[in-house]
């Protein structure tokens, strides 16, 4: 299956399972700001077909990055990273998966990162949605604090509200699989309202 076909199918799945829009700003974001639309990727990233598509597209986005592992802040990044790692083994170019804790482990090794990693490894940080980029940046900071080199970042959906730009300030090689603009355009085609959300 071609990359463009997989992306189209993923956008359709996101429209059906992960995207909501209301004429009035009724959705409260993590930042506390209200928005007219909401993207919850988990019903897509935890769906078997969604997992397949996400894994393929993220793995391809990491091609040539020279990383040995992929991961991000739990829980949003976990299905994305695990799917990409699984696909990497099937493709014969294995990447390890890792998870960045929200709270530091207070016993045993007392660390932020869980996974089979060695300090100095080159990592890719992923996330499901970027709004301000805060979750991705937290994962980048914690990975670097434990001696890893973060070389690139990939977000599944960029809400196009400055998050990807903020990530690029910390990790210049950062990209998104799907943008809000692409998602909203397809949602309208599938029967959503005309026009676009301002916030």
Description:
By secondary structure, the chain is of the alpha/beta class. It has a domain of 133 residues: 3-Layer(aba) Sandwich (Rossmann fold), CATH 3.40.50. Helices cover 38% and strands 24% of the residues. The chain is built from seven helices and ten strands. The strands form three sheets. It has a six-stranded mixed sheet with strand order 7-6-5-8-9-10, with helices on both faces. A two-stranded antiparallel ribbon has the order 1-4. Strands 2-3 form a two-stranded antiparallel ribbon. Helix 1 packs across helix 3, helix 1 crosses helix 7 and helix 3 crosses helix 4. The longest helix has 15 residues. The chain starts with a helix and ends in a 10-residue tail after the last helix.
Strand content: 15-25%
For the sheet with most strands, the description reads: 6 strands, mixed
Estimate the global geometry from the Cα principal axes: globular
Structure classification: alpha/beta
What is the CA-based Rg, rounded? 17 Å
Main CATH class of the domain at 46-178: Alpha Beta
**Number of strand segments:** 10
- Summarize model confidence as the mean pLDDT: 92
Low-pLDDT residue spans: 194-199
Query: Roughly how much helix do the residues carry, as a percent range?
Result: 25-40%
Strands side by side in the biggest sheet: 7-6-5-8-9-10
Order of helices and strands: HEEEEHHEHEEEHEHEH
Number of helices: 7
């Amino acid at each position: 299956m071609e990359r463009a076909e997989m992306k189209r199918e993923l956008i359709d799945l996101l429209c059906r399972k992960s995207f909501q829009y209301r004429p009035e700003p009724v959705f409260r974001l993590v930042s506390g700001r209200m928005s007219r639309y909401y993207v919850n990727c988990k019903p897509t990233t935890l769906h078997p077909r969604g997992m397949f598509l996400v894994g393929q597209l993220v793995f391809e986005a990491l091609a040539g990055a020279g990383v040995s592992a992929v991961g991000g802040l739990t829980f949003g990044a976990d299905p994305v990273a695990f799917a990409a790692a699984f696909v990497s083994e099937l493709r014969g170019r294995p990447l390890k998966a890792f998870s960045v804790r929200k709270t530091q482990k207070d016993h045993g090794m007392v660390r932020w990162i869980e996974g089979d990693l060695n300090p100095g490894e080159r990592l890719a940080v992923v996330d499901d949605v970027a709004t301000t980029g805060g979750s991705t940046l937290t994962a980048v900071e914690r990975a670097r604090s434990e001696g890893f080199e973060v070389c690139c970042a990939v977000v599944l959906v960029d809400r196009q509200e400055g998050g990807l730009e903020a990530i690029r300030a910390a990790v210049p090689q950062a990209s998104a699989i799907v943008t809000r603009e692409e998602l909203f355009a397809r949602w309208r085609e599938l029967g959503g309202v005309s026009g676009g959300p301002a916030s």
